[in-house]
Target: Putative tranport protein
Amino acid sequence: MMPFSGVLASRFGCRVVYSIATLVILLGFLCFVAYIMEGSMLDWSGILLTSHSMISSNQAGLGYTVFAVAMTTGRLLGDRIISAFGRSRVFSFSALIASFGFTVVVLGANLTSMMCGFFLIGAGLSNIVPILFTASGQQTVMPSALAVASVSTIGYSGILLGPALIGLLAQVTTLSFAFGIVTILSFSLPLCVRFISFSNK
Model:
């Protein structure tokens, strides 16, 4: 049986196969990063707060609550925001907000600033993954269903592997350092927006 890449090459040409690999892997990687950021909030935000001695253990879920409220609100308003400003602008601004929020959380000056950081992360991440899924479905060099499945598979591995990798890194160094690495990764989102073609349809 001819391998998948061979089938694509015979149907679309070698240049398209290269474009498929580049585009889908990029979209999948960005989803992977976004889900790592989300997973870090789900599994580690409470421990980060208590490790800074800013909150008692029975209130450790406050940070995730702020994050979840911001994400839910952003997700509900996402269609209206995208219709008003376009996917490219929303993605760029959202990515910057989320990265800035992580920076605020890592610096951890006080409880109020960290809560603001959690809110910014939730608001920023709320529409990033849906926009990336839409972009993978709208590209024209690969069947939409296959592209979305590939991107989602790569992306969802971030929410599965991310928290474990953060925990491993935190054990070797510190949790703040591990969050710092996630912060650096988060800046790949706004930096890579120039390589993605967004449609507002």
